[in-house]
Design goal:
36% of the residues lie in helices and 10% in strands. With 549 residues, it is an alpha/beta fold. Bound molecules: fe (ii) ion.
Length: 549
C-alpha cells in the first residue's frame, strides 16, 4: 500500500485533566493511546506535533463570544454563579466545570485546527488528533461531555482552502453539533452512523436532511442495538462510496468515536476493533486528504487499543504490528489477554432481526441519488495564515483578525435579532416602533428568544430528558437592557409589610404561597433572585400577573 504523510497531534498535558470522580469521560485515555502508539514505535513514522492551543478568538469562529468568555473564567467554585444555577452554558450533570476546563478545550480545539491547517498547507495527507472529535458542543452551550466543537472549527479552517468537506461520524451517538452547524450549507456534507431510539441526543432521523441550500447534504443513518462488523460495513461502504461519487469532497474528517465498540460502558453496538478500523482503512484508500479525530469511548482500555490500531491503519502498517501488546506504562490494564484486540460479544443484532438495516440503506442511497452533482463553489485566494499575518501587520496580537471577527459577530447579532423579531407572532406596540435603539431592540428580542428557548435537555449519562430552569432573570440582571415593559420579579412576590408586627416579612401574605417547606433567609432569597420556592409556579398565578402589571 502506498505511503501517506501522517501528522499526529498530541499534548502531554491532555491526560492530566479530569471531569471529576465517577464521570465516564476520561481524558486519560488519550495518554494511554499515546503510550501504546509509542510502545509500538509508531512515533518515528509520523510527524509528531504539539498543537498550538486555540485562543478564545479562534473558538469564536463558531461559538458565541459570551460562551467562550464564560469558559475562559469558569472554575468549579464559580460555576454555580456563572451558569445562573445551572440554567445556562453548562446544564445538567454531563458537563461539569472541572479544573483546567478552558486549557483542555484549547488543546482539543488547537489539535483539530492544526490538523486542518496541516492538510490545507499540503504538508500532510492524513492528520490525527485523538483529543478532538467532541461533536455534541453547541454554539452557545456545552452538551454530552463536549464544550468546544473542535470539529466545526477544523471544518471552517478546511473551508478556507477547499470547496467541499465531508464529515463522517461513527460514534455511537448522533453527531448533532456538527450537523447543526452546517445544516444549511452545501459545502459541508455530514454523515452520521449512530444508535437512534431513546438514546442521547435523541436526534438524527432519516427525515433530517438539511435545509435551504443544505437540503440533502445532511445524511443520517440511524441504527439499532447490537450492530456487528458485517452489518455496519454493509451500510457504511455503499453509503460513503455514493457520497464520494456525488459530492466529490476535497477533504474528509472521520470522527472515530469509540463508544460504538463492543462492551462500551455507554454504547450499545457490537463492533470489534477491526470492524471499527475498517472505516479508516476504507477512507485511506480513497486518497483524499483525511483527518482522524477521537470522540466518545468509555471503556478506556478498548479506546486505547482501537485508536492505536487506527493510527497504524493511517500509516498503512496494520498488518505488520504484533497483536501481543508490547510492554508499556499501562500494561496491566490490558489483561488478561494483553492483546491488541476488541472482540464482539453475544448481543443480538437488532438491525438484521427486523430487517430495518436494509430499509435504512435504501433510504440513504435514495437521498444521495436525488443529489444531482457536487455543488460548485466560487473560490478565491484565501490566505492560509491569519489576515494580519498575511498582510505583515502583526504576528502576535493579530488585531486586524480580531476586529474583522468582531465585526462579523456584530452583523450576525443584528441578523439574529431581526430574524427573531420577524418570527414573533406578537404585534409590535407603538412604543416598540418608536424605539429605534438597536441595543434596546436586541434586548427585547433576546428576551423573547430566552423565554421561548426549549427548557428540556437529554443526558448522555442517563439518556433521560430533564428540565432546566429559566435563566431570563439572571440574564437581564447581568447587563442586558430591558424595555420599560420588562417583567420585574425581584422581591415583589417574596416580601411584604406586616402590619401586625410592623416589619418586613419574607414570604407572601397568602399562606398557600409561603416559600416552600422552610422559610428563606435574606441570603437565600438574594441567591434565588427573590423568587418563591420551587413548588410555586408564578407564571400560572393570576395574582402574580396582576402584581406585575
Ligand atoms: Fe458518543
Amino acid at each position: 500500500m502506498s505511503k501517506r504523510r501522517v501528522s499526529y497531534y498530541y499534548d502531554h498535558d491532555v491526560g492530566a485533566y479530569t471531569y471529576g470522580f465517577g464521570h465516564p469521560m476520561k481524558p486519560h485515555r488519550i495518554k494511554m493511546t499515546h503510550d501504546l502508539v509509542s510502545a509500538y514505535n509508531m512515533l518515528d513514522k509520523m510527524h509528531i506535533l504539539r498543537p498550538q492551543r486555540a485562543s478564545p478568538e479562534a473558538m469564536s469562529a463558531f461559538h458565541t463570544d459570551e460562551y467562550v468568555h464564560f469558559l475562559t473564567r469558569v472554575t468549579p467554585e464559580t460555576a454555580e454563579e456563572l451558569t445562573y444555577h445551572g440554567s445556562r452554558f453548562l446544564v445538567g450533570e454531563d458537563n461539569p466545570a472541572f479544573e483546567g476546563l478552558f486549557e483542555f478545550c484549547s488543546i482539543s480545539a488547537g489539535g483539530s485546527i492544526g490538523a486542518a491547517h496541516r492538510l490545507t498547507s499540503g504538508a500532510s495527507d492524513i492528520a490525527i488528533n485523538w483529543a478532538g472529535g467532541l461533536h455534541h458542543a453547541k454554539k452557545r452551550e456545552a452538551s454530552g461531555f463536549c464544550y468546544i466543537n473542535d470539529i466545526v472549527l477544523g471544518i471552517l479552517e478546511l473551508l478556507r482552502s477547499y470547496p467541499r468537506v465531508l464529515y463522517i461520524d461513527i460514534d455511537c451517538h448522533h453527531g448533532d453539533g456538527v450537523e447543526e452547524a452546517f445544516y444549511t450549507s452545501d459545502r459541508v456534507m455530514t454523515c452520521s452512523f449512530h444508535k437512534f431510539g431513546e438514546y442521547f441526543p435523541g436526534t438524527g432521523t432519516q427525515d433530517d436532511r438539511g435545509r435551504g441550500k443544505g437540503k440533502g447534504y445532511a445524511m443520517n443513518v440511524p441504527l439499532k442495538d447490537g450492530i456487528t462488523d458485517e452489518s455496519f460495513k454493509s451500510v457504511f461502504e455503499p453509503v460513503i462510496a455514493k457520497i464520494l461519487e456525488v459530492f466529490r469532497p476535497s477533504a474528509v474528517i472521520l470522527q472515530c468515536g469509540a463508544d460504538s465498540l463492543a462492551g462500551d460502558k455507554l454504547g450499545c453496538f457490537n463492533l470489534t476493533m477491526r470492524g471499527h478500523a475498517h472505516c479508516v482503512q476504507f477512507l485511506r484508500k480513497q486518497n483524499i486528504p483525511l483527518i482522524l479525530l477521537g470522540g466518545g469511548g468509555y471503556t478506556v482500555k478498548n479506546v486505547a487499543r482501537t485508536w492505536t490500531f487506527e493510527t497504524a491503519c493511517a500509516l498503512g502498517i496494520e498488518d505488520e504490528i504484533d497483536p501481543n501488546l508490547p510492554w508499556n506504562e499501562y500494561f496491566e490494564w490490558f489483561g488478561p489477554r494483553y492483546r491488541l484486540e476488541v472482540v464482539e460479544n453475544n448481543m443480538e443484532d437488532c438491525n438484521v432481526k427486523d430487517g430495518s438495516l436494509e430499509k435504512v440503506r435504501t433510504t440513504a442511497l435514495a437521498q444521495l441519488q436525488a443529489l444531482a452533482c457536487a455543488p460548485s463553489v466560487g473560490m478565491h485566494d484565501v490566505p492560509s495564515e491569519s489576515v494580519g499575518q498575511h498582510l505583515g501587520l502583526s504576528k502576535d496580537e493579530d488585531d486586524l483578525d480580531k476586529q474583522l471577527a468582531q465585526h462579523a459577530r456584530y452583523v450576525y447579532h443584528l441578523q439574529e435579532s431581526d430574524a427573531t423579531s420577524s418570527e414573533s407572532d406578537e404585534p409590535e406596540s407603538a412604543e416598540d416602533s418608536e424605539d429605534s435603539s438597536s441595543s434596546r431592540r436586541f434586548a427585547r428580542n433576546a428576551q423573547r428568544t430566552a423565554v421561548r428557548r426549549a427548557k428540556k435537555r437529554m443526558s448522555l449519562m442517563t439518556n433521560r430528558v430533564f428540565e432546566i430552569a429559566s435563566h431570563e432573570d439572571g440574564y437581564y440582571e447581568q447587563g442586558c437592557q430591558t424595555s420599560s415593559k420588562s417583567k420585574r420579579r425581584f422581591f415583589q412576590a417574596a416580601a411584604y409589610w406586616d402590619d401586625t408586627f410592623g416589619e418586613v416579612k419574607l414570604g407572601t401574605r397568602d399562606p398557600r404561597r409561603v416559600l416552600g417547606p422552610k422559610q428563606q433567609t435574606l441570603a437565600e432569597m438574594l441567591e434565588s433572585g427573590g423568587r418563591a420556592g420551587e413548588d410555586v409556579n408564578m407564571d400560572d398565578d393570576p395574582e402574580w400577573d396582576e402584581m406585575e402589571n
